[in-house]
């Protein structure tokens, strides 16, 4: 499976082995973090399930494979949220009607459900009956992130597969083949993205390590001078949420330092500043700061029609009044 990222290959082979042994489950729930390229895993699995003569991989030559390559297989269906809305009951009922009918190509029928956690309760209940009483040669492939919640009854009807994060050694080998940089820079990009290789590569390609460092330097000036004007002008419209995430990572690592947690740091390259900041705050203060910025992040993502700068100013002002201690 040369088209798959190397860290996805073991999961792919384990799943298709169950089909080769005649034990393939009719409903697969695959949980994978963003930044692992799991979309490629789902594509490979859908092609394998729909192939008329699969072995360790789809043959690529049968009529079903040609239809899948042309994105025109009549028995392959995608169920996804529309315009960032939840997946509604009417969408599920329409899919249920389709899969209750005979396959047009006399082979397998497959429904790929993206972001399965977006199913409303009514939609999940409508899907449940189909999962409980599966039709012959009918398969469901559900995708979600590990942190997402799914109706317990749906979860219990599926065979669950967790796509693990690759090891640091695996990612470094792959990253070094994709981007020329010092190992320390690769490790920084990897830490910034909690071990997710594709996001780490994006960080390297876009020069985000230096951008983050410069932005957090302004956060430090804001902290020292207790003035939002030290940082507000440096927020970028298209990158505001990411910049808030940089602040949250800084605060999170300060909390880890305070609690003597050594693992999972995202700002190891800035450890001196993080530890100095943490030493000047109480653990409760750091938790309060994190809560304030989490709310800012949530508001940025969910509230429309409100001036972004006002939301940022409100959060920064609360950091000054509720957290930072005068020296």
Automatic annotation (TrEMBL):
It is an enzyme of class 2 (transferase). It comes from Haemophilus parainfluenzae. It catalyses: DNA(n) + a 2'-deoxyribonucleoside 5'-triphosphate = DNA(n+1) + diphosphate. GO terms for molecular function: 3'-5' exonuclease activity; DNA binding; DNA-directed DNA polymerase activity. Transmembrane segments: none annotated. Residues 208-319 form the DNA polymerase III delta subunit C-terminal domain. Its EC number is 2.7.7.7. Gene3D superfamilies: 1.20.272.10, P-loop containing nucleotide triphosphate hydrolases. This is DNA polymerase III subunit delta'. Keywords: DNA replication, DNA-directed DNA polymerase, Nucleotidyltransferase, Transferase. GO terms for biological process: DNA-templated DNA replication. The lineage of its organism: Bacteria, Pseudomonadati, Pseudomonadota, Gammaproteobacteria, Pasteurellales. GO terms for cellular component: DNA polymerase III complex. Pfam families: DNA_pol3_delta2, DNApol3-delta_C.
């Amino acid at each position: 499976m040369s088209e798959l990222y190397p860290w996805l290959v073991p999961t792919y082979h384990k799943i298709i082995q169950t089909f080769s042994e005649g034990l393939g489950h009719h409903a697969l729930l695959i949980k994978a973090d963003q930044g692992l390229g799991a979309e490629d895993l789902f594509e490979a699995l859908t092609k394998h399930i729909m192939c008329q003569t699969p072995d360790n991989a789809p043959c690529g030559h049968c009529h079903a494979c040609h239809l899948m390559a042309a994105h025109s297989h009549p028995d392959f269906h995608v169920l996804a949220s529309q315009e960032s809305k939840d997946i509604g009951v009417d969408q599920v009922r329409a899919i249920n009607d389709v899969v209750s009918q005979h396959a047009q190509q006399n082979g397998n029928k497959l429904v790929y459900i993206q972001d399965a956690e977006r199913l409303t309760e009514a939609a999940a209940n409508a899907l449940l009956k189909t999962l409980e009483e599966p039709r012959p040669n009918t398969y469901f492939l559900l995708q979600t992130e590990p942190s997402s919640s799914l109706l317990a009854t749906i979860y219990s009807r599926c065979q669950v597969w967790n796509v693990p994060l690759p090891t640091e050694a695996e990612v470094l080998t792959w990253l070094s083949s994709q981007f020329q940089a010092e190992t320390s820079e690769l490790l920084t990009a990897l830490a910034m993205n909690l071990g997710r290789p594709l996001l780490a590569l994006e960080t390297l390609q876009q020069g985000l390590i230096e951008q983050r460092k410069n932005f957090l330097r302004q956060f430090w000036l804001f902290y020292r001078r207790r003035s939002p004007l030290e940082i507000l002008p440096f927020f970028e419209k298209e990158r505001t949420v990411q910049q808030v995430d940089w602040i949250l990572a800084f605060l999170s690592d300060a909390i880890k330092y305070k609690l003597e947690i050594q693992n999972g740091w995202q700002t190891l390259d800035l450890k001196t500043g993080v530890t100095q900041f943490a030493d000047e705050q109480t653990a409760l203060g750091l938790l309060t700061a994190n809560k304030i910025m989490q709310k800012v992040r949530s508001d940025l993502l969910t509230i429309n029609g409100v001036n972004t700068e006002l939301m940022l100013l409100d959060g920064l002002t609360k950091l000054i009044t509720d957290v930072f201690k005068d020296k």
